[in-house]
């Protein structure tokens, strides 16, 4: 049994080698790569908008008389209505703020739930192997093979509408990928020295899995989670657009796109504003993920992104 | 607001002073008083400049010297229009695929258009012009009616041919009606024929033979009724009683016949592509009205988003928006002068409402139902359906050909609503679920109603489903499933009489009475009205029924329908009626 591994994962108690020194330097250089700054900045802005949404007005207040033109069309941009009004005379700005709030809640909550479920499954399957592995990973395969939209519509049909439904759907469909990731990582670490030492010292299986293996999953999952969150934002919008997500009158970016679509020829901002918001939120998560990856050379090596 | 000159080089048809564009027609028909209701319906008829030509409805056209043709007004009836031009194809665009082109089965807009006016045309009877009642069609003349009004004897016109060349004979009607009534076909329309002797036995599958209809010879058809029924002649004008050729149905089978039917209308079907979402139709040279149709063909394309349909009409890629200008585009179209030329507003007998499922609390309480009717502000709802629906707080459409509404429509009175709720035992309101389809304009209307009812303490949560899912829930509610409390729906009449709604929606156990509404007085009066052939006496009965239904309030009556047609400027003689849509045989380009 060797003390240094070919993959260069640090072994406790060993002095840093030349390679590790170089890595420390690149780490310092890459501490705040531009992508990370941009991603974090945008996310701070969106989080602030989500928290301060009530400042922008009431997204449900309809003004069918003065909130529309005399012939019943949505108002354009003005000081009173910075982003105009929608077909029911509601402030598009207030709806945008609340739509961003909905998207951020979905992104954060469903991200945590889907990754937690996935990590637990992957860890159990990778560590315990045998029949547990066979059963869990076959279920994961099924989860990966599901056509997302179709499966989502089926689940939507079984539940009453609302934010909870969207989070359940996203969790049910998004856990399989992190499960597969964690499973692979556990298989890689399963026979490392530190795991085998723990086993030799008589640590219980559960304790090895949670105390020795689970912490090693964090860098991986931290890098994966922004990507997962970005997908969740887009998927929530898709569901709401299809009428299977968040029901009107609650503002959601998908609902707003769905409403704005029919107004494209006379009030294009009703479609463009939520579409750009989705684009920016998704981009901010992707930039964050990219930045985190660049910041951590270890992750570069174990990256699952096409390496 | 004078009509802009058409850029179309084929502008050969009329010298300038006579209006031939769409709005001209509207003005004339408005001036003729026939469609006076249009004036209240929207802004278009209000543009009337008094430019009307002489001559009442139905007057013949006159040919002007120099080859140009004066169209005095739209020409009613299925006779050739002098001045029409032969040739050309019309492209029609739709949102939904046809549910079936089989006349006994089709009911959605796309199907209805094809089976009423394209592949088929009426049946024994056909509706006259844009508002008239049934007139003879395949029948050579109106039927001879026995003294007790229970036996109708039709003489079949000779020489009316199916698209396969065979002549239509009396036996074809018997075959078609037995086929339509048989449970195997599961036609939606069987209840229209229940007054024919023996029809119920066929519907229930007890026999395959319809006893009450006989054909003494090929050109005579005798129909025996169990009781007098003035609506039966309307049924004989509608596609589900149209004859179908037995040999073709048997050759193709029911499913294939629903895609490529062999009819007798002005156009025969030449192509049906469910994957490509198109159907094409070609002129039928042996059409029963000689000289018609003008067009060489009609083509359908479906599966097109409503806002895209309008863009296609503007660009000239399509000539006709089959289901009309959608609500979401109507305000835009009516507010944009350049788009005015592409639209016409027509009355259309139909309603839009919230169905109240009356079998469970709190909705089994009449006062609660009335409170909901007083609590909605229809003027606000009218803002989002401008041009396609008009506020109307009463049962029956605002505009029906043979009936003048007498019930005083519900208005907006939240104080009264609160008082009624308190009297009903709900001083603090209640919570309920409103189920809606995702089709325009229901989501917008539901959100407005939700906000308005919150004002009287009724807290609605919205459940948005697809329109197919809503249909299934409605049908399930009859069998005790579905669990609907309130839903939003609309109804388009296919008969120019309130009987259409009363017999389908309001009588106990009627085919579309999903909300368990039942009032024995309504049932009794409806049966009596159906047997009353005198229109004045009948309308007195329908006035009583309207009053009863209005007070019972099994629906939150919201709006009455209009029709905002989307018609290209190259299309001439566009005639629409609410029950049967566009008369394609009289269109020309």
Tell me about this structure.
The complex is a heterodimer of chains A (307) and B (589). Chain A has 307 residues and is mainly alpha-helical. Chain A has twelve helices and no strands. Helix content of chain A is 67%, strand content 0%. The two termini of chain A are 27 Å apart. The N terminus and C terminus of chain A are likely disordered. Chain B has 19 helices and 21 strands. In chain B, the strands form five sheets. In chain B, strands 3, 10, 11, 12, 13, 14, 15, 16, 17, 18 and 19 form an eleven-stranded mixed sheet that branches. Chain B has a four-stranded antiparallel sheet with strand order 6-7-9-8, covered by helices on one side. A two-stranded antiparallel sheet of chain B has the order 1-2. Chain B starts with 21 loop residues before the first helix and ends in a 7-residue tail after the last strand. Chain B is globular. At the A-B interface, loops of A face helix 9, helix 10, helix 13, helix 15 and strand 17 of B.
Count interface residues per chain for the largest interface.
Answer: A-B, 26 and 33 residues
H/I helix tally of chain A: 12
Q: Span from first to last CA of chain B?
A: 25 Å
- Classify the beta-strand content of chain A into a percent band: under 5%
Tell me what portion of residues of chain B adopts beta-strand conformation: 15-25%
Order of helices and strands of chain A: HHHHHHHHHHHH
Specify the biggest β-sheet of chain A. Answer: none
Helical fraction of chain A equals 55-70%
Count the E strands of chain B: 21
Which descriptor suits the 3D outline of chain A? elongated
Mean pLDDT of chain A, as a whole number? 84
Average pLDDT, all residues of chain B: 83
How can the largest sheet of chain B be summarized?
A: 11 strands, mixed
What oligomerization state is this entry in?
Answer: heterodimer
Helix content of chain B: 25-40%
Radius of gyration of chain B: 24 Å
- Unreliable segments of chain B (pLDDT under 50, ≥5 consecutive)? 1-78
Number of helices of chain B: 19
Helix and strand composition category of chain A: mainly alpha
What distance lies between the first and last C-alpha atoms of chain A, to the nearest angstrom?
27 Å
Number of strands of chain A: 0
